[in-house]
């Protein structure tokens, strides 16, 4: 029974590692800050989450040791990484990092123009 | 909601004092009895029976996890595809949510949705500016998802 569980936890951890590799590839491959941010803020989150979950389950079943810090870590990563992604892309936009040439639509530009018109 | 929860804990403690036994079992029994009492007296509270709120929060958490997995699959497809044929863009989404925490939760949910990332929120907190990975086919589908998210969040704060 324990061997099967070990394999399951191994698969969870490997899945997390695979997702982390994938998000690294995404950061290299995608064209601009914003699309890279998509890859970094999503795949990396789930990758780290599943690695932590795998470690938590392994120590729980194998050693009978329930480490609540890993659970807290899961919750914290889950809550903070989308906020970090939002803040990075917002900072990039406000410091006028251009979007990719093939981007189709930019509603935010209109908002900033409106604000400038109001300021005058 | 918080008032009802506090009252329920208070009833549980009263139950423990009545039975003169101080362990988790009697706290739990008292809590269940308090739940029943609050359910019978639910007409006298200004808000609804609070278990419904708890249930809505649990549903919201499940939505969070489902969207996280789905969005990873969507990103996976884009990254693995040999040809890069995405059409990114920023679009505006008007929201009806009022309180700050509701907008925060909505923004977090949108960021974890397949192919969308919140870039900015307008100063009057009525419009969210969202960067979409692929704007052509996602636009309408996303609007419908947003409606379901917004509904789920409103359900919590009702």
UniProtKB/TrEMBL annotation, chain A:
Q: How does it sit in the membrane?
A: Multi-pass membrane protein
| Coiled-coil segments | none
> What InterPro entries does the database record attribute to this sequence?
PhaG_MnhG_YufB
Give the location in the cell.
Answer: Membrane
Cellular component, GO annotation: membrane
Q: Could you tell me the keywords of this UniProt record?
A: Antiport, Membrane, Transmembrane, Transmembrane helix, Transport
Transmembrane spans = 6-31, 43-61, 67-88
According to the UniProt entry, its GO molecular function terms are: sodium:proton antiporter activity
- The family this protein is said to belong to: Belongs to the CPA3 antiporters (TC 2.A.63) subunit G family.
The name of this protein is Monovalent cation/H(+) antiporter subunit G
The species this protein belongs to is Fredinandcohnia quinoae
UniProtKB/TrEMBL annotation, chain B:
Its membrane topology is listed as: Multi-pass membrane protein
Q: Which UniProt keywords apply?
A: Antiport, Cell membrane, Membrane, Transmembrane, Transmembrane helix, Transport
KW Membrane (keyword) present? yes
Which residue ranges traverse the bilayer? 5-22, 28-45, 52-76
Per the record, the domain of life is Bacteria
Q: Where found in the cell?
A: Cell membrane
One GO term in the molecular function aspect is: monoatomic cation transmembrane transporter activity
The Gene Ontology CC terms held by the record are: plasma membrane
Q: Which family does the UniProt entry place this protein in?
A: Belongs to the CPA3 antiporters (TC 2.A.63) subunit E family.
Q: What is this protein called?
A: Na+/H+ antiporter subunit E
What is the species of this protein?
A: Fredinandcohnia quinoae
Taxonomy, top ranks, is: Bacteria, Bacillati, Bacillota, Bacilli, Bacillales
């Amino acid at each position: 029974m324990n061997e099967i569980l070990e394999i399951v936890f191994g698969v969870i951890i490997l899945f997390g590692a695979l997702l982390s590799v994938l998000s690294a590839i995404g950061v290299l491959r995608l064209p601009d800050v914003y699309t890279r941010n998509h890859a970094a803020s999503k795949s990396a989150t789930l990758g780290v989450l599943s690695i932590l979950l795998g470690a938590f389950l392994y120590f729980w079943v194998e050693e009978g040791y329930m480490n609540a810090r890993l659970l807290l870590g899961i919750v914290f990563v889950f809550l903070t990484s989308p906020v970090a992604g939002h803040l990075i892309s917002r900072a990039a936009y406000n410091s006028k990092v251009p979007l990719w040439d093939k981007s189709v639509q930019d509603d935010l530009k209109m908002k900033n123009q409106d604000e400038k018109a109001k300021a005058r | 909601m918080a008032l009802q929860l506090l009252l329920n804990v208070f009833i549980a403690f009263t139950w423990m004092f009545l039975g003169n036994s101080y362990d988790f079992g009697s706290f739990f029994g008292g809590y269940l009895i308090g739940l029943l009492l609050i359910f019978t007296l639910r007409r006298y509270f200004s808000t609804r029976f609070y278990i419904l709120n708890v249930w809505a929060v649990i549903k919201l958490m499940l939505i969070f996890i489902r969207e996280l997995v789905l969005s990873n699959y969507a990103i996976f497809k884009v990254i693995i595809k040999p040809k890069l044929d995405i059409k990114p863009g920023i679009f505006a989404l008007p929201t009806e949510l009022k309180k700050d925490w509701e907008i925060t939760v909505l923004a977090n949910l949108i960021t974890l949705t397949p192919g969308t990332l919140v870039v900015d929120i307008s100063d009057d907190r009525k419009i969210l500016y969202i960067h979409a990975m692929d704007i052509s086919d996602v636009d309408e589908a996303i609007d419908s998802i947003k409606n379901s998210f917004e509904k789920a969040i409103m359900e919590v704060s009702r």
